[in-house]
Known about the structure:
Elements: E1 7-11, E2 14-19, E3 23-24, E4 27-28, E5 41-48, E6 53-56, E7 62-63, H1 72-88, H2 93-99
Antiparallel strand pairs: 1-2, 2-5, 3-4, 5-6, 5-7
Amino acid sequence: MDEFKALVLERGDFRVTLDHIGEGVYGDYDPEDEQDERRLRFYCDKLDRAYGSWEEVEDSSYCTLLNPDMPPITLLEYMLLILDVLESEERPRRRLELLTNVTMED
């Protein structure tokens, strides 16, 4: 199991980070449990142009069904979906929650 290096993608005023912070299917990842799998979490930020700093988008950090062993291009495609939601929704919480159920295997 390789260490996962966080992926960060910026577009316009938004930034998405996809990272493995130790989560698994049943909470904290347990490498001793053959049924457990590592899970990735995403975080969303919006650029505050007045201060030139990134601010967390409210209710935008979610654990996903994605695992760190997926191809990087697949993970980047997922991040683009998140950016699409952030750019098109004033209140993206519900649509971001729905994206947590996407497997990217379809």
